[in-house]
Amino acid sequence: MLKQTFGSVFKEPKGKGDITPLQAEFLFGLRAGFIMKFVYLASIVIGSIGGAQVIWNFLDLAMAAILIPNAIALLLLSGEVKNLKNEFFTSEEYYKKDIKKKSAS
């Protein structure tokens, strides 16, 4: 009965953007997959009894947990990205080589 009711939690992902317990198991081990299943099921139960505000607060917290490390990484890598951009646009090997081909045509 439980598998019929919550079967989508235990299936393979359908699209590229689906996050499933299988992906959590691959990245972080079996325990993380179990935790993801629990979070999915708890979200379904809490949302079904009218706890939408609790779910939205949880989603906001999860988004912050994703956003903060990415923002830090962007700041730390911005100098490297600038150097690579300058190397690409000033190098005869990359960008200028393509410009010469287009102007010669």
What features would you describe in this structure?
With 105 residues, this protein is mostly helical. The chain folds into two domains: 1-50, no CATH class; 52-105, no CATH class. Helices cover 76% and strands 0% of the residues. It contains five helices and no strands. It has helices spanning 2-5, 21-28, 30-48, 52-90, 95-104. Helix 2 runs antiparallel to helix 3. The model has no long low-confidence stretch (mean pLDDT 76).
**Low-confidence runs of at least 5 consecutive residues:** none
Number of strands: 0
What is the share of helical residues?
over 70%
Q: Domains counted in the coordinates: how many?
A: 2
Keywords:
2 domains; single chain; Na/Ala_symport; transmembrane; 105 residues; mainly alpha; transmembrane helix
Task: Please render the helix and strand layout as text.
Blueprint (H helix, E strand, L loop, with lengths): L1 H4 L15 H8 L1 H19 L3 H39 L4 H10 L1
Helix pairs in contact: 2-3
Protein name: Sodium:alanine symporter
Pfam family, one: Na_Ala_symp
Membrane topology: Multi-pass membrane protein
Describe what is shown at a glance.
This is Sodium:alanine symporter. The chain has helices spanning 2-5, 21-28, 30-48, 52-90, 95-104. With 105 residues, the chain is an all-alpha fold.
